[in-house]
Amino acid sequence: MIKKTLLGLAAATLLSMPTWAEEVMLKSNHPDSHTVVKGDTLWDISDTFLQNPWMWPEIWQVNPQIDNPHLIYPGDVVRLIYLDGKARLTVDRGNGSRTYKLLPSDGITKLSPQERVVPSAAAIPAIPLDAIDNFLSKGRIVTSAELDDAAYVVQGSDGRLIVGAGDELYVRGTLDEDTPVFGVYRRGKVYKDPVTNEILGLEALDIGTVKLRDRHNDISTMEVTRTTEEIRIADRLLPFEERAVESTFYPSPPEEFVEGVIMDVEGGVSQVGKLNVVMINRGDREGLEEGNVLAIYKRGETIQDRVRNETITLPDERAGLLMIFRTFEKMSYGLVLEASKPLTVNDKVKKP
């Protein structure tokens, strides 16, 4: 599975989850309840009650009458209650999580409740998926060898050097025989670890999608079904990745201690704010998983101690939170969910 989601988790799984060492902390001004509205996210709701919103699963009270307590819908009411002196979150289902059918009776049409069947797309997401949609479905980090060895565009139909959606093009190279759809990519930025200078990956820029029409030896004919810009000669083909962007991430701290830095931010700017997508220099090999939450720290300023006439470095200051939503071997994409101060490239990230 590409994402760990809430959608398939059963109540028994939730109850058997290990308890994190961190203590759940309530906000001093928390409400007693919150009515879910369209546009809410699980993170927003958790942040209403908790100082550490990623700890929401730890205090969730499973209601026996609810088929799947992890799915929350507009109209539901999330309440903070206390059981045996401990805070718990529970939900009262609203009309948004019910369905009705029309039943004819004596010539009169009545609304009658039936067993609830809720499409999963109606549930609110954990984080704003529209902020990361492009990175979920199309963003990709590869090695230089992967891109160099991939099949490439040699020409468009009728001798065209550039092609767009609806056109045909010719590709040369070995293709997976079981894969009819391919993404078209162009070489982008090379990411290096700012501390060790190790090459962490190569950004494969999404250019479009093509569908196999015919194959003759190492030359294949493709139909262009989607483009973000015109496809050019030498653009590379990689197997298309189907990613379910409607899935809900499960927030959690990393199991092991992780510390890294923000290497880059979407759009190539240096300033980072809430809902910006950032790239960090830690990934699968460091144990990061999709849904992991990391705290962001501003590096302590170096100043002059005028009393002792010495240069000293002030402590790092916590300034935000991000959630990892896609991992690669050596690096990851994250979404900034909180930013109490202006953030920048090279700010630190670590387990909260």
Give your account of this protein's structure.
- By secondary structure, this protein is mainly beta.
- It has three domains: 1-137, no CATH class; 141-239, no CATH class; 259-350, Thrombin, subunit H (Beta Barrel).
- Helices cover 7% and strands 39% of the residues.
- It has helices spanning 11-15, 42-49, 133-137, 144-148, and strands spanning 33-35, 77-83, 86-92, 100-105, 108-113, 141-142, 152-156, 162-163, 168-172, 181-192, 199-216, 219-227, 231-232, 236-239, 259-265, 271-272, 277-280, 293-298, 302-305, 310-313, 317-327, 332-339, 343-344, 348-350.
- It is flat.
List the main descriptive attributes of the protein structure presented here.
about 5% helix, 4 helices, mainly beta, about 350 residues, disordered N terminus, Thrombin, subunit H
Rg (CA only): 25 Å
Number of strands: 24
Helical content stands at under 10%
Which structural class do you get from the secondary structure elements? mainly beta
The overall number of domains is 3
What's the arrangement of secondary structure elements?
Layout: H1 11-15, E1 33-35, H2 42-49, E2 77-83, E3 86-92, E4 100-105, E5 108-113, H3 133-137, E6 141-142, H4 144-148, E7 152-156, E8 162-163, E9 168-172, E10 181-192, E11 199-216, E12 219-227, E13 231-232, E14 236-239, E15 259-265, E16 271-272, E17 277-280, E18 293-298, E19 302-305, E20 310-313, E21 317-327, E22 332-339, E23 343-344, E24 348-350
Antiparallel strand pairs: 1-2, 2-3, 4-5, 6-11, 7-9, 8-13, 9-12, 10-11, 10-14, 11-12, 15-17, 15-24, 16-23, 17-22, 18-21, 18-24, 19-20, 21-22
